[in-house]
Amino acid sequence: MISRALETTRPLIDARRHQIAVSAPEEPIWIEGDRTRLTQVVGNLLNNAAKYTPEGGQIRLTVELATPDALVLIRVADSGTGISGEMLPKVFELFTQVDRTVHQAQGGLGIGLALVRRLVELHGGSVAAHSEGPGKGSEFTVKLPLLRREAVAEPAPAAPAAPAPGSTARRVLVVDDNVDAALSLAGLLKVSGNIVETAYDGQQGIDAADRFRPEVIFLDLGMPKLDGFGAASWIRSQPWAEDVLLIAVTGWGQEDVRTRTQQSGFDAHLVKPVNFAKLSRLMDQHRSAGRKSVG
């Protein structure tokens, strides 16, 4: 898993001329889970380190056993721009934007960390971030449960990281002109067992909604061609959309904007960064209670 993650991130690491050190026990370490998803976890952390570390910096990947707790610890540390104490609690939330020069040069919002946390939690683990502050680098630690010793001789088939779409799956549409944001939220929703489509402006959003007929729609507000307010008004006017859960996901939190979202037919207004657990609760409330104002 570690080797595959290194292979996928090596081009970015090499392009930025980083020095990377890898340390891991020689003996095999067994965990139970989805190899592809766990490789994605480590890959996202390595990508994050490469993006936030100036050229020629250092990245360290270590794997170690915490035997008394039956855990494996995967640490990714860098000599990069660090994270302020104010931002540390927020780095795993959706759409968190940290004002760091290297990050701005690389593009994106760093929101792959929200997906990291979701995937790790689905495997019964946890992830934490640590930094001494701006300019002092950062370290991310993933903790995953070890496979029971008696199961190692004949490992069971890998458990999926998320339920396959079935009776509990929701049809969800994500509309955001920031492609990274849309794809990251879509990824989180997919690993939670939903059927997800994306669109990247308001006009694409209403076209996709009319074709896909989603049960839940997440709409950004400030988009080209047609903004989220206009898209919401059109969607809500369609007979098929009467029971659709329509949620604004935006950087705008002013009271007048909230009033306008309500007038445009939105059921809820979430301000970025968004906690995925809160987002999931809104979807669960809508399923159990039917369409109504939920936030």
Q: What can you tell me about this protein's structure?
A:
This protein is α/β, with parallel strands linked by helices and 295 residues long. The protein folds into two domains: 2-152, Heat Shock Protein 90; 171-289, Response regulator (Rossmann fold, 3-Layer(aba) Sandwich). The chain has helices spanning 2-15, 35-52, 101-106, 112-122, 149-152, 179-191, 202-212, 228-236, 255-263, 276-289, and strands at 19-23, 58-66, 71-78, 126-130, 138-145, 171-175, 195-199, 216-219, 245-250, 268-271. The strands form two sheets. It has a five-stranded mixed β-sheet with strand order 1-2-3-5-4. A five-stranded parallel β-sheet has the order 7-6-8-9-10, with helices on both faces. Strand 9, helix 9 (255-263) and strand 10 form a beta-alpha-beta unit. The longest helix is centred in the first third of the chain and has 18 residues, at 35-52. The relative contact order is 0.11.
The radius of gyration over CA amounts to: 21 Å
Mean pLDDT rating: 86
Number of strands: 10
Total number of helices: 10
Please state the structural category.
alpha/beta
Portion of residues within helices: 25-40%
**What is the topology, as strand order, of the major beta sheet?**
1-2-3-5-4
By CATH, the architecture of the largest domain is named 2-Layer Sandwich
Distance between the termini: 40 Å
Total domain units: 2
The main β sheet shows up as: 5 strands, mixed
How much of the sequence is in beta strands? 15-25%
List the helices and strands and how they pair.
Blueprint: H1 2-15, E1 19-23, H2 35-52, E2 58-66, E3 71-78, H3 101-106, H4 112-122, E4 126-130, E5 138-145, H5 149-152, E6 171-175, H6 179-191, E7 195-199, H7 202-212, E8 216-219, H8 228-236, E9 245-250, H9 255-263, E10 268-271, H10 276-289
Parallel strand pairs: 1-2, 6-7, 6-8, 8-9, 9-10
Antiparallel strand pairs: 2-3, 3-5, 4-5
Helix pairs in contact: 1-2, 2-4, 4-6, 7-8
